[in-house]
Amino acid sequence: MDLILRESKTSAHYSISYVLAGSWNADPSVQIDFQKALLENGLEFSQSLFYKNGFQLRREPPSSPLQILLESPAPQIHNLKIIALNPNCDLDYFCREAEAVTTAYQQIWPAEQYQILNTSARIDHLYSTKVHAFQYLWENRLNQSPEDFKALGGRPVHGGGLRLLIPPHAAEGQEPVTIELRVESFLREPRKLLVETAFTWPKPRVLTDGERFDPRPYLEAVENYAATEVWNFITHGSGPAGS
Description:
This protein is an alpha+beta fold. It has four helices and ten strands. The chain is elongated and about 60 Å long.
């Protein structure tokens, strides 16, 4: 009997984030121009929040949830973040929306070149399990005994997981990437396993005139890694669950 069901996978989070060098015009009128550019690129937002060093746009259901954060955390540095929490769309749809956001950004804040200090992307998946997800991790994946928890005073353990950090490493023909993995029981639904895969590309890059941010390859790299290496990792040594 499979204890973790691959076909049950759902996506709980998509995001991509850029840290850029240089200042940007945060004047409210320019921010409104940005919303107009987003609308011209097919994106309409129902909520907006403006504050001293940035602003946030939010789109709520029934459309697929989407957030844009543009803020300046330090002088000559600003962040562009595109986030979908509990999306009701697939990755291809989110990639197209992220492309529309970055296109609108370049229309409103044009530059001869953009210096991107780093790029980050994250995807969360949920998998159904036949037993408590932490029980699966502890006993089936890690081959540990439930008796070990008696050392904690005999109290029941309702959840837990693993967190791994893989330092920057460059595969052949690819730029270095830092990988963070979080695999844990989903507290709201104990028979679901939350798998968070996050990549950060720390090498700065420069976009010259005519070049695009092109978020799709970054998001697809995370998705492919989560579907292969991460899946093999969470099912390795778990008997029939990895079949």
